Amino acid sequence: QVQLVESGGGLVQAGESLRLSCAGSGRNFSNVAMHWFRQAPGKEREFFTAINYAGTSTYYIDSVKGRFNISRDNAQNKVYLQMNSLKTEAAAVYYCADSGIGSIRLGIELEDYEYWGQGTQVTVSS
Questions:
Q1: Do 19 and 8 touch, CB atoms closer than 8 A?
Q2: Tens digit of pLDDT for each residue in 64-102?
Q3: How far apart are CA 34 and CA 55, in angstroms?
């Protein structure tokens, strides 16, 4: 059974940090770019960062650039998201997703992602 499992979410205060993990099992995810999304209550699921299969190329949307860092350990079949200087608007359920291709490609439709994790909740208090 192929699975992606996110972990590391929790409750933090604004300005603090969290490190999320996305662990893959059931297949080798080292040959695909991995993307992170977040979804706040009442809002659409938002893509905000990606990393290519080798970990040599990353992409961030402007609102998280400089504060978030995506990385991966292909030997462990894991992707990490370090989130620093968290703002209250970052509160959401965070998901990792398998893009199905090795390079970073933007604008993939949600239904075209190969696999999704179940999400991990991040709550940021003021």
A1: yes
A2: 999 999 999 999 999 999 999 999 999 999 999 999 999
A3: 9
